[in-house]
Amino acid sequence: MILGGSAPPGHVAILHSSVDRGEALGKVLRAAGHQVTVVRPGAGALPTLLTASPDVAMGTLYFGDHALKDTIAAARHALKSEVPLLIVLGREDADAVVSADEVIREPVDAGELTLRVGSLIARRVERRGLQKKIDQLAGLNRTSWAFSLAGGSETLFGQIAKLSADALRAEKGLVLLYDSQRREMQAQTPGFGLTREQVERVHYPVDGEPRDRWNFRINGPLLSNHAFSDPHLLPEMIALLGLRSALVVPLTLGPHVLGLLLVGDRVGAAPFRDEDLGVLQAVAGQAAVSVENQRLHEQIKEANARLQEYDRMKSEFVAIIAHDFRSPLMAIRGFAELVLEDTDLPLESRQEFMQTIMDQTDDLARLANDTLLISRMETGEIQYEWQDVELAPLILEAVPLGLSRHSVVTDVPAGVPAIVADADRMKQVLTNLLSNAVKYSPEGGAITVRVRERGDQHVLIEVADQGLGVPPDQVGRLFQKFERVRSDEHLRISGTGLGLYICRKIVEGHGGQIWVESETGRGSTFSIRLPVDARAATREASKSNGAAKNNGAAKSTPA
Amino acid sequence: MAKKKILVVDDHAPTRALVRTILEGEKYENFEIVEAATGTECLKAMDKKGPFDLILLDVNLPDMDGYSVCRALRTVESKVPIIFVTAKGDMKDYAAGRAAGADSYLVKPIARASLRSIVGLFTSVERNAPKSGGEAELTEK
User: Fold this and answer.
1) What is the 3-state composition of chain A as percent helix, strand, coil, each rounded to the nearest 5?
2) pLDDT tens sequence across A383-405
3) Are A413 and A450 in contact (CB under 8 A)?
4) Residues of B in contact with A324 (CB under 8 A)
5) Residue A552 to residue B122: CA distance in whole angstroms
6) B4: closest CA of chain A, how far (Å)
7) Are the C-beta atoms of residues B37 and A491 closer than 8 Å to each other?
C-alpha cells in the first residue's frame, strides 16, 4: 500500500444505499486510521452530514430518495466547503459519473479504497492550506495595498516585490512592466532582495512576441528550480539577477498583459512547488489591479497639472488682453470728452479727434476678434471649411484700403491652380501679413505678394516688404503668442503680438508652414508653404498620428 | 514765463496724443510735450531732451516695466516729479511705484480735469534744478 503511511488521516462520511455495505466500507477505512460516519438515508441524512463536516464523502449514485450528488451539493453549500465526493459504482451503473471527484467500482477492493480516500484527503488538506494562504494574501492586499498609491509607483513596485517574495518565502522579488513605446519589458525599481543596479539593467525587447507570451520566453506561468539551465529563461537575465530558481507569472488585466511578476530563490534553497504558482498568480491578480490604479492615478495627476498650467496661461492671457483693451478705450473716452465739452473746438481738430476715435474702435473690434479666435483655436473649436480657393482674387481682397505711401504688387502666374483651403481664414492670414508689411515699413515702399506652384503638390506664397526687417535672433520667437520684435522702432508701433501667432495656427491647421527671412533695415519676406489640397493633407496627417509636428516658427530657411 | 516741459511715456500713440491735446489746449499754462513710446526712448529723452518739469509714466511698457524705468530715472534725476499713469487694475501695484521712487499716480481713463489738476499741482511748485543747490520743495521719500 503506497499511500497508507504518508496519507494524513481524515473524516469520511459514507452514504451507501445499503447500510450494511456502508458499514463494511467504514470498517476498512477505520482500519486505515480514518474517522468514519455512516449516514443513514432519510430526513436525518443531511443534518448528520453537516454535523460530521467530513473531509471526504463517499457513497452510491443514489442515496435514499435523492441522487447522492444533490445531497452532497446541499452539504457543500451549507458547509461552504468543497467536500470531495467518491462514488461507489454498482455493476448496473455502467457509465462514469461527472459529478464525482473519484469513482470506485463494486466489488470494492480494500487497498484501492484506502488509496483513493487517502489521496482525496491529502488533496483536500493541501487545498485548505492553499486557501488559507490566498485568504491571507487577500487580507494583506486589502490592508496594505490600498494605501500604497499615494507613495508613488516606486513604493508600489517595492511593495509588490516584497509581498510576493514573502508570500512564497523567496529571497528575491521583481515587477517587470511592458513599455509600449520602447516595445520592451522593463524591470521596475526597486525590486526585493536585488540591488537597484541589478534591476535597472533588466530589460529586453518583446518585438514579434504575441502579447500573451511576454514571459521571459514561454507562454503562461513558469516554474523553474534550475534557472541557470532552463531553456525557457533568458540566461543573461538569470545571471544578472543571480537566480537559482524562479517563479514567473504574467500580470494581466482583462485581456491585457501589463508585465510579469517574478520571485526567485526560496529561503533555505527549498524547491518551488506547482501550487506556489497559484499563490503567485493570486498575488499577481491583485498586483495588476494596483499597478493599473497607480497608472490611472498618475494620469489624473498629470492631467490635473496640465489643467492648472492651462488655467494659469488663460489668466495670463486675460490679464494681457485686458490691458490691451484698456488703452484704446482710454483714448476713445478722452477724445470723446474733448469733442463733447470743447464747444469752440476748431472743425479740423474735431475731425481729427473723431478719426482717432474711429481708428481706436476698429482696433478694439480687431482685438476682440483675435482674442475670440485664439480662444476658439486653443480649445479646438475651430472647424475649417474646405473649399476651392482662387488665390489671385483672395490676395486682392486682403490688400488694405487707403494706402498712400505703399504700393502693393501681386505676382500670381496664370497657371497656378486653385487650392483647397478655408477661404475666410486664409484671407485673414494674408490680411495680417499685408497689414504688418504696411505697419512695419513706416517709410513706405513696395510690398510684393508672390505665388509660386511647387512641384510637390504645394504652393508657396510670399509677402515681401521693404520695411524695418526682423533681427535674425528674433525670427523664431516671432510666431509665438504675444511676441513682437523687440526694437525701439518696432515697439513704437502699436501691436498685440497676436497676428503672426494666428497666422501660424491657421497655416498649420492647413497642413502648411510659415516662416520669415529678413535683413534688418532691408525688409522682410514672410513665406507660406501650403498643400494644394489642405483637406487631403490634414486628413493624411491625422491618420499618421505619429507624424512629426512641423515647426514652421523656428524655420529660417524654406524646405 | 518759460514753458514747462513734460515727458509723456506711453506705448499707445493715441494716448500720448490725448495727453498732448489736453495739456497743450490748456489756456492757463504753457506746456511743452515730449513723447516717448518705450522705456528705452524715455531714458534717451531724459538724457537728450531734459531736464523736465514732470514725467507721466505708463506702468505697462513693451520693453521694460514702468517701475524699472522709474528707478533708472531716479539714478540720473532725483528731483523731477514722476507720476505713474496706471489702469485701475494696476492700483495694487502702486506701492511698488512708490518704492521705485514715483511721487503720485493718475488712474486711467485720463479725465481732462484730473490730468490738468495733477499736472498743474506738480508744475506749480518751482522746480529746483539739482545744480542750484536750493532746497527741494517737494520732499522726497
Assistant:
1) 50, 20, 30
2) 888 999 999 889 988 888 878 88
3) no
4) none
5) 52
6) 22
7) yes
